[in-house]
Amino acid sequence: MARIGRGRRGCDAIRGIPNRRSSSPTRKHLAPPQRAGDQNGIVAALRRLGTDESIIKDKSAIIVFYAGHGASSPKPAEWEDWATSGGQLEMLCPVDMGELNEANQEIEGIPDRTISALLDEISQEKGNNIVRLVVVP
Known about the structure:
This protein is of the alpha+beta class and 137 residues long.
């Protein structure tokens, strides 16, 4: 298995995989927005996958690649229905984590629960041929 790497090099390596090894009819890559690594950019990019008409339901392969930092945090008490390992949730750390948003609130990480819900939305619209690759230092 080839080393993927992190950051831009990892992303470039992942982009080549479907073209070499997949029989998927769609060979399109989602170009990241200017600040693709910020919280809004990550969520928006995942939402676009569910509405992209060039992705053919149950035929196209979808590869979601994230290279960055992750963290864990105690699960909020109100998440009673969310099973976690050791009472912890895991999250992706967007580049703007810790900054203040327009409402002057601190931007937090993206919880695994949110990522799971977004991937579920994609699978409902496009099928479950989804691979999620997460590379964290």
